[in-house]
Amino acid sequence: MDTTLEVHSLVCSRDVELYIKTYILFKNYYKENFIPIIHEDGSFSKNDVKRLNKYIPSLEIVFKRDADLRIKDSLSNYPLCQHFRFSEHHTIFKIKLFDPFLISKSNNILYLDSDILFCKEPIQLKFNIENKIGCYLRDTWSAYCVPFRDEDNDSIIKRNINAGLTYFPTKEHYNLSLIEECLDVLYRNGSRGATHPFLEQTCIAYLITKQGEKFKQLSHPEYCVPTFNKFLPKHNLTGLHINSSPLVGKYRKEHYDYELLKAGINI
Question: Quick check: 2 pLDDT over 80?
Answer without folding.
Answer: no
